[in-house]
Every structure is written in structure tokens, then in C-alpha cells.
Amino acid sequence: MERCLRNLVVGMVVLVTVLVPALACAKKNPVKEQLLKLNEEAVEALAAGDYVLAIERLEESLAIEELNVTYLNLGRAYAKNGQCNKALEAYDRMAVAPRVDEPSPELIFATLTKYRAELLETCPGKVRIRCNPSTLQVSVDGAAPMACPERLQEVAPGPHRFDAFDAGELVSSQENEIEGMSISYVDLIKPQVIEYKSAEADNAGSISGLTWAALGTGAGLLLMAAVIDQAFIAPDVEHANTALFTPADAQMFSDALDTKQTVNAVVLIGGGVVLATGLGLLAYDLFFSGPAQPNEVSAWANAEGLGLTFQMRF
Q1: pLDDT tens digits along 94-133
Q2: Residue 256 pLDDT greater than 70, yes or no
Q3: pLDDT tens profile 179-236
């Protein structure tokens, strides 16, 4: 009787349409007789494409005795019936179920690997579409735009195109490869543009920052030269005229005084040049320049990254 059952199970794995003539064996155990009958009906249902009936018979068979090959065929029936999660659960339970001698564990494992791969190729995947802003309209594979979905969306495995529209205008697009029985995430983000404009003069004749800088720097250098002259150079000159020095000391003092006067002359001339430049810029700003042109900085962001665009006018 055990040999009869094993022959029938082999037929279920390969989904044959002709039953193994093992039913001709003697039937002495009522439980085994019922098990044989259920598996026979399951094989016939699978071959006929009646997957609901096959599922019912296989589950009844498992209630009597759990076998790895029965779980394998139950998973296959679930998959053919579109119940992918239950198919995967049956395949997982097959790993801990008692084994049959025939078909061999190697054949069952190879068949399981094939069936699992088919699940990923045929069962839908789920997609979480995230929109920013949430008011975007979403189109999948060119379908009519719809409100950005809040729940997971089921799509067939393979490449898909996701488009986002704002007021009828395409603002974001992505192409994603969706895997079966997995969750993928699609972020559709409308690029955000932030504009910054520098203060713009309302009228002609405004004074630029460069002009103020030149005037202030030139005046500061001239003031510094005056302070150096009065605080350091003038006392040394007076001291040189009244003090008595040895020839060597007189030479050292004269050299030091010359250095101070040279540095002060450089500061004085530099201050004068910078101040003159500032006065020239002031005249230009007051009488010749037009309204100041604004500088612009634009920031953008989308699914591909972030960036800044600078535009300066002179």
C-alpha cells in the first residue's frame, strides 16, 4: 500500500493526466484507501485545470498525513489559482514535512526551485508610490492620471514607467523594474525652485558697496599714516635734533627713522590711491550708473539630486 501511494505522488509532481496504475494494489488500510482516493482526485483536478478542487483534495490529504511532495503540489495549485502568498507558504512548509522515497529529494528540490522562480516571474509585486507634493497626479505605464495612491499598488513583474503631473504638466518621471512578490518604492518629486534676488536699487545714482569700501579703506589708510607720523616719527625726529649720539648710534638711529618714514610713506600713498579710486567710483555711481541689476540664485531638487544655479549681472 505504501508503494501505491508513492507512485501516485510521483504523478502529482509532474502533473500527469494518466494515473499511475498503482491503485490496483491491495487496499487493506481504510486510512490509506482514503488518502489514495484524495490524491487521485487531486491529480485529475490539476490536470484538468480545476485548481480549486485540487486545493481542496490536497488539503484533505494533508489533514490525514503530511508529505513533502503533497505540500509541493499544494503550492503549485495555489500558484496556478493566483494565490501566490499561500503558494509560498506551502513551499516553506514542504521543507519540514516528512519526505517520501520517490520522487527523490533531489528531484523535489529541483522542482521546488523551478516553482519558486515561476512565482517571482508571474506573481504581482507591490509598489509604494510617494509623491511630493501629495497633490501630484500619477500615471502608471501611460494610463490616465489618478490621485497619488495612499496604499500599495499591485503591478505585474517587469519594467514600468511612473509619471507625475501637476496641473496637467509632466513634472517627474521614473522607470523601475518591479520584482514579483516584493515591495518597491517609487518617489515622484516635483522640482522645487527657490529664487533669491539681491537688493535692487529703485533709482539711478545708488552707491555701490565697492565704492563705500574704497572710500572707507582709503580714508582709513590716510588716518593711519597721520597717526604713525605724529605718534612715532615726529618724536624721533625731535630726539635726533636734540640728543647727542656717538657716530655708530647716530647711524643706527638714522636707519631706524628712515625705515619708519618709508613705511609711513607707503601707507600714505596707498591710502591716497585707494581714496582717489573711491572718489572716482562715487562719481560714476552718482552720475553715470543705471539701476542696479539683481543677482539671482536658483535651487532645484528632484529625484535625480539637488543643485544650485547662479546668475550674476554686471
Answers
A1: 988 999 888 898 999 999 999 999 998 999 999 999 999 9
A2: yes
A3: 888 899 999 999 987 655 544 444 445 677 788 887 788 788 888 878 888 877 878 7
Rounded Cα distance between 181 and 244, Å, is: 104
Return the closest-CA partner of residue 266 out of 231, 301, 309, 221: 221
CA 15 to each of CA 100, 116, 120: distance values in angstroms, whole numbers, following the listed order = 17, 17, 21
Give one DSSP letter per residue of 204-249, joined into a string. TTPPPHHHHHHHHHHHHHHHHHHHHIIIIIHHHHHHHHHS---HHH
What pLDDT, on a 0 to 100 scale, did the predictor assign at position 195?
Answer: 59
The three-point CA angle 39-117-38 to 5° equals: 5
pTM beyond cutoff 0.70? no
C-alpha dihedral, 104 to 107 to 109 to 112, nearest 10°: -130
State the Cα–Cα distance between residues 243 and 252, nearest whole angstrom. Answer: 14
CA dihedral 236, 239, 244, 246 (to 10 degrees): 0
Cis omega before residue 103 (within 30°)? yes
- Listed residue (116, 125, 122, 120) closest to 182, CA to CA: 125
Q: Where are the beta strands (DSSP E) in the chain?
A: 125-132, 137-140, 146-147, 153-155, 158-166, 169-178, 183-189, 194-197, 296-302, 305-311
Pairwise CA distance, residues 71 & 78, whole Å: 10
Question: How, if at all, do strands 137-140 and 146-147 pair?
Answer: antiparallel
